[in-house]
Amino acid sequence: YAINRALRILPLYYVVVAVLLALHVNGGRPDQWWRFALFAENYSAGTVLRADSPMWSLAVEVHFYVVLPLVALLVGWVARGSRARAALGVAAVGLASLAARVLLVQTSAAPDFRWTFSLPTLFFFFAGGMLLALLRARWDERAPGWAGRGALGAGDLWVAASAPLWALAAWRTDFEPVVVAAAFLVVAGCVLRLRPGVATRVLEWRPLATLGVASYSLYLWHVPLITAVGGNPVDFRPTGPVFEGHPHRLLYLGVLSLAVCCAAALASYALIESPFLRLRRRWAARTGRS
Prior knowledge:
Layout: H1 2-23, H2 30-37, H3 55-79, H4 83-106, H5 113-116, H6 123-141, H7 155-161, H8 163-171, H9 176-191, H10 198-203, H11 206-213, H12 215-230, E1 234-237, E2 240-243, H13 247-289
Antiparallel strand pairs: 1-2
């Protein structure tokens, strides 16, 4: 588990950090280097949202992977073999995280950024995925009778049901639980034993699937590349990008940035990610044979 996650995340992350600190942040200060190296950038005003603003969420994700075995042990102890109790345990921790988010971030007059960008106040996002994993495991054993039949059994319906939630989340960025619900419906429509439809076929479209393979590279490189291409026409914030400039220019820059970012992501995957992922596959093969 740890080796798989490390080979997936660390090589590209450290390459991007080194490049951006060396070129984009004038070489960086020593404290910036060690904070980024230890995924502690979210706990200092000198590093949070610096270099590459989306990295704050990657730091939270790594913290989640570190504590996940402990969470699994705790949930397993509470569940005692019952998936229903496991789901209740995950939901309880998720609701506690959401309550902390509301209290310490959303309703605070002066929220501390260390709470804003921390796992305790963001765990409820992960709880949605954990609940879906439990549901998928349950359905793999015994799917409900309506799965794959009728309206509720159509994956496209689940995906379509997320549309108003995404619209609400775009309108009110502080409605963060809505994002969890919308993402749950989209992913559930694709991974549960539901009748496949247009949404599944679109996601299986080869060019899109190829880009999905390089999505981690796209995630880490897109902000600095868009900034370089457009001369900083977009102010990237945790609540979403703020666009500045004439709409025609933004459209041109958007198309150009899309092409540059996709090409760079595919190259980054081939040159940086893929060699380490091959190591992971070889390690998994040896483990399987043993």
